[in-house]
Every structure is written in structure tokens, then in C-alpha cells.
Amino acid sequence: MVKIILIDDEKDALEALEWKIRKCGLDEDVNIVKCSSPIIGFSLIKEIDPDIVFLDIQMLEMDGFTFLNNFPNRKFEVVFTTAHDEYGIKAVKADALDYLLKPIDLDELRLTFAKVNKQLSLKREQEKIVDRINISADGKVYLMAKEDVVYLKSDKSYTTIFLTSGKKIIATKTLKEVQKKFIYPEFYRVHNSYVINLKYVTEYNKGLSELTLVDGTIVSVSRRKKNELIEMLQLDK
Q: Which CATH architecture has domain 2-130?
């Protein structure tokens, strides 16, 4: 799903642009949100976290370049749309992906989306690499996605990592040291001996204060972690 926000204070221009985007025949499904106010658009970007923003330059409330100054570390791609051709250099300096003159030509828009698809593919590949966790064990460095890890178990100075595939990786480090690699919110230390991936919890036994994980493993929950865990899993008390 590609998330797109269109910002233009001319509603007719918004309708026309949405129609043309849908005529492009994109490879992926699109979610398009239109906005005629850059001030409201500011909040929408925070809420939706779009992949791409089509942004008009000349708007009454705020021009497109001033609007972008609110996002110095933006993650989304920007395509400027304007009826004026004198802003090309400023658009390049603003690190825009493209610059389209109104009325927007459908073939030009298709070329823009070719650039969009290339950039999105590149970002996704980079995210996969960044998100992989590396663990040293057995004289090797194992690279794994966080989704591949069910739980970590401590055995004094050793830590065993249990994967969804059934494979185990034994690292000659304490659980405290290994846990530093698992900085994601779904990994939670429920006991001195266990860090679990909350996504793989299938059952909670209130009486025994135990969790059952997707692979059938039963893990004890320490008394001081119980209430916090119940809130994190949004369990009925």
C-alpha cells in the first residue's frame, strides 16, 4: 500500500490530480488523502506517515517551500505541483523527487511514479538491512529479522535465542548483553531468565502467572513484571 497525501488549496486541482493518479495503473494499491489547507496537511502528515506528498507551491495560507521547512528530517518523498515554471531550482534545492507543471500531463505523472516506485523499493531494502539483528555465536555472525525470534533464555553466562524455524543460537554473552540488540518494543523481559517477543504470546495463565508462546514454550512471569505485562498485552484483569 502506497500512502499519498495531496495538498493544494484549489479543490478542482485536487480532484483532477486524484483522478489522474488512479488512471496511472500503479503496481500497488494506493490510499489517497486530499487536503486543501497546508495547516491541516501538517497534521495529516504526522498522523498518516505518507510515502509521498504532492504539494502545491502557491497557496494562500503558506507556500509549499515554507510548508516543507516544518519537516527538516522528512521520510516522505515530495512532488511539487504548480502552474508556474520559475520554481524548478528551488524545488531541486528542497530535495523534491519531481516537479510537475499544471495542468499535469498523465504521461508525465506516470514517469513521476516510476521514480516513486524506484525510491520506495530502495527504502524498503534499506529498512530490511537496518532492521536485521546481528548476533555473534559459534565463530559466526548470524543476521536475523526481529520477526524470526520467539524468545531469549538465559543460562548464566550464556543466552539461547529461539527462532520461529525451531533453530537455536547460543551466544556466549549474558542475557543483559544480548538484550541490547533487541531494542524493539515487542521484546520484553518478563523474568530474569527470559526476554520474549510479545507477538508470539498465545495464552496467559493468571493463576500461575505463566505465558504460553507460539511454539508451546511456557514462561514464568515475575511478580514485579505482572501488572506491566497485563497492560502491554491489553489483557482482561
A: 3-Layer(aba) Sandwich (3.40)
